[in-house]
Amino acid sequence: MLCIVLYPVNTQAxxxxxxxxxxxxxxxxxxxxxxxxxxxxxxxxxxxxIDLTPSDPDPKLQSRLLEHAVxxxxxxxxxxxxxxxxxxTALSKASQNKIPVIAVDTRIEHQAxxxxxxxxxxxxxxxxxxxxxxKTKGIGxxxxxxxxxxxxxxxxxxxxxxxxxxxAGMTVLFRRANWNxxxxxxxxxxxxxxxxxxxxxxxxxxxxxxxxxxxxxKMKIKNKIVTVGFDGLTRTLEYIRDGKVDATIAQxxxxxxxxxxxxxxxxxxxxDFLKEILILxxxxxxxxxx
Length: 290
Hints:
- The protein is of the alpha/beta class.
- The chain is built from 9 helices and 14 strands.
- It has helices at residues 29-44, 59-71, 88-96, 121-136, 152-167, 181-194, 206-219, 234-241, 253-268; strands spanning 2-3, 18-22, 48-51, 76-79, 101-104, 113-119, 141-146, 171-176, 198-203, 226-231, 247-250, 273-274, 276-279, 282-285.
- A 6-stranded parallel β-sheet has the order 3-2-4-5-6-13, with helices on both faces.
- The longest helix has 16 residues, at 29-44.
């Protein structure tokens, strides 16, 4: 969707810009790649980038960091929300100060958000679900390892896989793992010991399926369970190559990072811009690796 800028433009927009980036955390490979892309693209535009990404995914801290960016009167903000609802107060302050905010990866329903750039999670989840149904022939139970409660990406990925599995007649067992690798390991271990008909495991993030594969390997049942992740991270691709994981839905955080900077520059320069960009993911299994 093309947008003609009606948002108040900072008078400094034609000069050197200062932009704050506040990612999900610095301890997640996906966000490390996305943050790196933002920094590199910002440098090409001679932008002063202030990286305020917290080291751990702490919603309250992220909200305070967003308020800090507003107080510094930056020209624009790029944010990857941990918990969107926790940011509403800080976003209202950004709106009051006429600072445009771009949401990257995670949708935030707030008037301060002028553009949204992310993976098309619905289409990605459908790919994962159809792959699972095909590999299991629609027989058995799918264990879904989910993210945090009400996180838009986690819910979209869960719902997409669940829809495909249930339409094929499979049973779905959902467990919330809060994007936590250790919890994913424990849930997988617990469920595999009591659910004899689990035919597939889908994790809403790659590290979750990586750790689940360790449980499966330990129990020596890899040939009985289809494993699918979501991210396309380097380690998971290695696991796929080694036969420890079957597939992942690959995102492109580099493109997301680059586009977020490009869109923000357009906004601040008073040019037309897209209010939403959804990047198509793709499935990777051994057939797609060199």
